[in-house]
């Protein structure tokens, strides 16, 4: 399903994330829902071409920071990667769609939007890998990126089973995602963890309600948080697999291995 918003010249700037706005009635935009049927439609080579002439002024006014624009598989509709994730925009830049596009020409519907999102997550995590706190498996078979918050109960449960993940060949890379945003206890704890002399030990102590020394350094916590927002993280833990798929919530080691082998 796709949600459509038509941009109007007199629309006031959005004060909150677009994703929160589309979940409730909007007074200054027209919200419609359509089902996209892509009969006989195949993606061409030209659909991967980047576009540099799209009018993004309406998007900027709504709080979007545009990172890339490409033609989508639907004529006249552009695929736009922003700081708030993937959206679709009309050629004139005046209509915006959120949701997923499916190709239904095969035996099973294919989620074309997820293909784009998974690729984006893979690329972004590759760029951020050095800033993660890594618990590395000796016989590594898989790498799972985890957006975490030390005050989150399920994050603590996952961490308590770290040895089981490692024994299963799963390397865990932690990224910071304070659920309360860029302030408060979780934010401060995450900054202290990344500033610690031994961040792995600090992570373990924080998730066991033990004190950690408050450091003073430049951390990637804000960058990780914004990355999570772009990925669509809505809570912790959020697991991103090597192929870019994102799994919301805690999974015990055996269940996670099943997902990794799909």
UniProtKB/TrEMBL annotation:
CDD domains assigned to the protein according to its UniProt record, in alphabetical order: DsbA_DsbC_DsbG
Pfam families assigned: DsbC_N, Thioredoxin_2
Domain annotation Thioredoxin-like fold: ranges: 137-260
Domain Disulphide bond isomerase DsbC/G N-terminal: 60-106
A single GO molecular function term of this UniProt record: isomerase activity
Gene3D superfamilies: Disulphide bond isomerase, DsbC/G, N-terminal, Glutaredoxin
Alphabetical keyword list: Disulfide bond, Isomerase, Periplasm, Redox-active center, Signal
Function summary: Required for disulfide bond formation in some periplasmic proteins. Acts by transferring its disulfide bond to other proteins and is reduced in the process.
Superkingdom of origin organism: Bacteria
Taxonomic source organism: Pseudidiomarina aestuarii
The name this protein goes by in its record: Thiol:disulfide interchange protein
Keyword Cell division carried by entry: no
Compartment(s) of residence: Periplasm
